[in-house]
Amino acid sequence: RATGKVYPASENGQAPFFSGTMLDITERKQDDQRKNDFIGMVSHELKSPLTSLSGFLQILQLKAGKASDSFTHSMATKSLNQVKKMTALINGFLNTSRLGTGKIQLNKQSFAIDELIAETLNDTSLIQDTHSLIYEPGGHVLIEADRDKVGNVITNLLSNAIKYSPKGGEVKISCSAQKGMATVKIKDSGLGISQADQDKLFDRFYRVQSLETNHIAGHGIGLYLCAEIIQAHGGKIGVESELGKGSAFWFELPIV
Ligand code: ADP
């Protein structure tokens, strides 16, 4: 970013000069790259112990089930669910570190987005009793996209809607088709986001700094990841929000 003023040529015919401040972004870029490499390396290293842990827990769950040890069985099941969540997080981090480097690949197939939403809502990681999730399906909409990655986007937006709205809140998800585009909208009645923050929300590592959000854990990469995935499909992503009233995140993807 540069700010300043260009002065006209001086009377003695010397070249005009530029006065002001220049911010060198090279350092910031290198910093981002270092963070990126670090995230990639750590995520990669965590993957194999997690795979083993998941395997051991599955054996424990099976054995406890056979011996009808319901306490051990339920503990093993709970641990397995947490390991699954952690694996999903780590895969997300790994994807993020690959984004922007051209290493991410889309595995496109044609599928019904309304079915994917219904499936995602049944996913154990989203099931909780603190918020009501309401689905307003808008008919059968076929799209051609990377099903897993679009699923990640929906999961991410839904878990944010839950995370950034008070207990007892309602989260509505809808899907509609218009002018060759499928639109998915996730609306909460939570904290809301100011206009200034909305402009930076999809930047990597960006998190809103406020008394209401400071105690909520996060890394500021979920929305960045969502935007990269949607844009890689030639789609659009955005948010409509008012501070204190709630937010509606939406994305659109071309229909087949
Ligand atoms: P994280 O939640 O890990 O911080 P995200 O990239 O998913 O990262 O979100 C970036 C920021 O956007 C969050 O820190 C939060 O401040 C804000 N945000 C995201 N979703 C919502 C929402 N539904 N309501 C209010 N604020 C949100």
Secondary structure topology:
Blueprint: E1 2-6, E2 18-22, H1 26-66, H2 70-98, E3 108-112, H3 113-122, E4 132-136, E5 142-146, H4 147-163, E6 170-178, E7 181-188, H5 195-198, H6 222-232, E8 236-242, E9 246-254
Parallel strand pairs: 4-6
Antiparallel strand pairs: 1-2, 3-5, 6-7, 7-9, 8-9
Helix pairs in contact: 1-2, 3-4, 4-6
Provide a descriptive summary of the structure in words.
The radius of gyration is 23 Å and the shape is globular. It has helices at residues 26-66, 70-98, 113-122, 147-163, 195-198, 222-232; strands at residues 2-6, 18-22, 108-112, 132-136, 142-146, 170-178, 181-188, 236-242, 246-254. By secondary structure, it is α+β, with helices and mostly antiparallel strands. It starts with a strand and ends with a strand. The strands form three sheets. The chain has a five-stranded mixed β-sheet with strand order 4-6-7-9-8. Strands 1-2 form a two-stranded antiparallel sheet. Helix 1 runs antiparallel to helix 2 (70-98) and helix 4 runs antiparallel to helix 6 (222-232). Bound molecules: adenosine-5'-diphosphate (ADP). Adenosine-5'-diphosphate is lined by residues 160-161, 164, 188, 190-191, 193, 201, 206-208, 213, 218-224, 247. Residues 1-37 form the PAC domain. Residues 41-256 form the Histidine kinase domain. This is histidine kinase.
